Amino acid sequence: MQIIKGIAVSPGIIVGRAFLVGTAEQVVPHRIIDPTEVTAQHARLHAALAAASAEIDELRERTRRELGPEPAKIFEFHAGLLRDRVLVSAVERRVANDFVTAEQAVADQFRVLVDQFNRMGNEVFEQKANDILDLERRVLGRLMGEEKSRLAQLDAPAIVIAHELTPSQAAGMDRSKVIAIATDLGGRTGHTSIVARALGLPAVVGCQRLSVEVEDGDQLIVDGNDGVVILRPDSRTLEEYRRKQERSQRSRAAMRELSGHEAVTKCGARIQLMGNIEFPEEVESMLANGGDGVGLYRTEFLWLTRKEPPTEQDHMDAYLRAITLLKGKPLTIRTCDLGADKYTQAQMEEPERNPFLGLRSIRHSLANPAEFKLQLRAILRASAHGPVKMMFPLVSNLMELRQGKLMLADISEELEDEGIAFDRQMPVGVMIEVPSAALMARVFAAESNFFSIGTNDLVQYTLAVDRGNERVAHLYQSAHPAVVYLAKSIVRAARSAQIDCSLCGEMAGEPLFSMLLLGMGLRTLSMVPDQIPVIKRVIRSVTIEQCEHLARRVGSFDSERQVETALRDELRKLDPDVFGQWVSE
Ligand code: PEP
Ligand code: MG
Question: Within 368-449, where are the H helices?
């Protein structure tokens, strides 16, 4: 038995079998093959080598054309190596003798060669070692690119284990087969974690070397409440976790019973609790959990779940489906938030050096006006069918907002000319998730109809901590006084401009922060639907005065520890039995 600690990102406890998934340039998963699979693995190997050779030939030809014959010679070594019989036979033997997969054999044999070159202690040979690593990545990329279909081939319920999963891999998972997720990399508010929560899959990320320790088919326990993965558990541990699993399911079921009650404080203030969704079908879960509408629809999943960019009709179909399911409740559509960890990096020939500071979100949309226009047209058209609001993500300067609104105005005119119905009063909002926008909230408030605070990004950009990086996860502190200060000032700016302000970062669904957020003046919170009942429970246990008092006190603290301790104490005081599990240190 082995216990691996990670970061709890999606609640629930699952016992099941491991299913390893890999991606190129990352850790190659261990899998012992059946002796009857050797021929098939050899065939995969040869196909991958041939494809990599073709890539190199193309590269050599392009270099020759563009730079001349001399630089093109660099690739002769690469091309030769891929056809080198000694190397290829060594890889074949490793598969046939040790029953490992083709990717494992490639990784092993290429590394042997790299070590040999490195030991020669000369710069030329060191460069060759780098070339070999580059080739290894190329061949592995070919082999492990098949992992997508491996995931699709999953035929029995299993726990997906990976070094890293992309949000689109997570979104494309067969929910009837995947029962939990655990990865080596990742942080709590990374998009893969958000998708796991949306799918209701227990998940633990940031488990460091998990994918190396686990073998395909191993029995595992994934504890998404405490952030632990237990490999090959003994019978006593299994028994203990089965009991924990029952307790956790009972407590969630009890919370759900509140779904019919209103989210009203003890002093009578009505709070809007909305759901964050990635797919229209999640509206059902939002309603079942007693939500008031959709506060954030992450429409980039329309791109992430198909090969080609969505057409205007694809947009319309999704929006109309959500509107129908919502039966008159409001839908807040966020325009496409691609970039950073979502889609575009994988699509780029040359990934950005610093993608979270790169061409993401509204910047990406403005740089792709044709695609953006289709989306804006579809949103406007959908607004004729139900209460729709629209907001732009990651706005960092006023020009972006103005450009976005200008495009919207042009499209509105177009629709008028075409005689197509739309809501001329559709509210247009801004997500405040960058410090520059937070600091200039008053200016943005004058040009928008509402704000939605995106704390997942606001925390990362304010504290300079990558939200998806497990190495700095301990520094990702939503309770940091700088974040509290910025959030307060955004709410204040919205109030003085008399526009609505909601909060849709993961913080909205964490009971620890509910009193603080209410105390700051927020009356609309949008969260993963499953969290609505517990937040409702907090709201029904407090008065606004109590919350305002706490927010004032917290506003004078200098450290996140002080803030967190105060929030924890207050929550515990409300009802230690009910909220105990959310306030453990
Ligand atoms: C946020 O940044 O808080 C947010 C809600 O947007 P996303 O998590 O999709 O970046
Ligand atoms: Mg964001």
Answer: 369-382, 398-418, 435-439, 441-445
Q: Please tell me the residue having the least CA distance from ligand 1 atom 3.
A: 454
Identify the residue whose tokens are 């979270």: 356
Which class would CATH give 14-19+150-236?
alpha beta
Question: Looking at ligand 1, which atom is closest to the CA of residue 361?
Answer: 10
Question: 68 or 270: which carries more pLDDT confidence?
Answer: 270
**Rounded to whole angstroms, how far apart are CA atoms 391 and 34?**
53
Percent of the chain at pLDDT > 70 equals: 96
The residues carrying an active-site annotation are 191, 504
Residue type, position 405, single letter: K
Query: If you measure from the C-alpha of residue 576 to the centroid of ligand 2, how many angstroms do you get, rounded to a whole number?
Result: 33
Domains 27-144 and 251-271+430-580 share a fold: no
CATH architecture of 273-426: Alpha-Beta Barrel (3.20)
Query: What value does the mean pLDDT take over residues 294-318?
Result: 92
400 lines ligand 1 (CB under 6 A): no
Which ligand is in closest contact with the Cα of 453? 1
The mean pLDDT of 303-321, rounded to a whole number, is 91
The residues spanned by each domain of the chain are 14-19+150-236, 27-144, 251-271+430-580, 273-426
Instruction: Kindly state the average pLDDT of the residues 550-567.
Output: 97
Summarize pLDDT for 108-153 with one digit per residue, the tens. 999 888 888 888 877 777 777 777 887 888 888 888 876 666 777 7
Of all atoms in ligand 1, which is nearest to the CA of residue 506? 3
455 Cα nearest atom in ligand 1: 3
Ligand 1 lined by 192 (C-beta under 6 Å): no
Distance between CA 548 and CA 521 in Å, rounded?
A: 8
Average pLDDT estimate for 461-468: 95
Can you tell me the mean pLDDT for 407-433?
Answer: 98
What is the residue-averaged pLDDT of the chain? 91
Note residues around ion ligand 2 (Cβ under 5 angstroms).
433, 454, 457
In the block, residue with structure tokens 């070594």: 77
Q: Residue 468 CA: which ligand is closest?
A: 1
Ligand 1 atom, smallest distance to 393 CA: 6
pLDDT tens digits for range 27-84: 677 788 999 999 999 999 999 999 888 888 887 887 777 677 776 777 788 888 888 9
Q: Is 433 in the pocket of ligand 1 (CB under 6 A)?
A: yes
**Hey, which of 456, 503, 526 would you mutate to test ligand 1's pocket, going by the most ligand atoms within 8 Å of its Cβ?**
456
Q: What is the model's pLDDT at position 250? A: 84
Query: Which residue puts its alpha carbon closest to atom 7 of ligand 1?
Result: 456
CATH number assigned to the domain covering 251-271+430-580: 3.20.20.60
Pair of tokens at residue 512: 């620890």
Task: Write out 295-347 in H/E/C secondary structure.
Answer: EEEECCHHHHCCCCCCCHHHHHHHHHHHHHHHCCCCEEEECCCCECCECHHHH
With a 6 A CB cut-off, is 300 part of the ligand 1 pocket? no
Q: Which CATH code is given to the segment(s) 27-144? A: 1.10.274.10
CA–centroid distance, residue 71 to ligand 1 (Å): 45
- Cβ–ligand 1 distance for 179 under 6 Å, the answer no
Ligand nearest to the CA of 197: 1
Contacts of residues 353-356 at CB distance under 8 Å and 24 or more positions apart, as own/partner, are: 356/460, 356/466
CA 301 – CA 305 distance, rounded (Å) = 6
